[in-house]
Amino acid sequence: MMERLGITLEGAPSFGWHAVSLWARHLSEGSAVWRALHPEHAAFASELGRAAIMADIFDAVLHTAATIAAAHGGKPRQPKPYPRPGARDRRSMGCGAIPVSSFDEWFYSED
């Protein structure tokens, strides 16, 4: 209530409990209370969730276009996935595993 109305629950009786219940019933999707009451919808209601869904749709359209082009005799390249918000880069670091005998020396080194 503090973020939207500027009052605490202590001040709610002067505001009216009916008004507080209306406020709680019509919370926006960005509210932490709304997300706690609707956990199954919370991931889809955020801007990040919507952006991830749009990236999935974009990838599906590209794969559909590539499949149709291949069916009609074309040789399309495999489409690259659209970059996901918050997704890690898939670059690898290093080349191969460290031998067990060298692990302690590497882990406890000061570098």
How would you describe this protein?
The structure is a single chain. The chain has 2 domains: 1-38, no CATH class; 46-85, no CATH class. It is mainly alpha-helical. The radius of gyration is 26 Å and the shape is flat. The chain has helices spanning 2-5, 12-15, 17-25, 32-37, 39-45, 47-71, 100-107.
Write the layout of secondary structure elements.
Elements (H helix, E strand, L loop, with lengths): L1 H4 L6 H4 L1 H9 L6 H6 L1 H7 L1 H25 L28 H8 L4
The helicity comes to 55-70%
- What quaternary form is this? single chain
Distance between the first and last residues' Cα: 50 Å
Characterize the largest beta sheet: strand count, sense, and whether it forms a barrel: none
Q: Specify Rg, calculated over alpha carbons.
A: 26 Å
| Secondary structure: number of strands | 0
Number of helices: 7
Order of helices and strands: HHHHHHH
Low-confidence stretches: none
What percentage of amino acids are in beta strands?
under 5%
In total, the number of domains comes to: 2
Anisotropy-based shape: flat
- Average pLDDT works out at 79
* Helical/strand content category: mainly alpha
Q: Keyphrases for this structure?
A:
0% strand, 2 domains, 111 residues, mainly alpha, 57% helix
In short:
This protein is an all-alpha fold and 111 residues long. It has helices at 2-5, 12-15, 17-25, 32-37, 39-45, 47-71, 100-107.
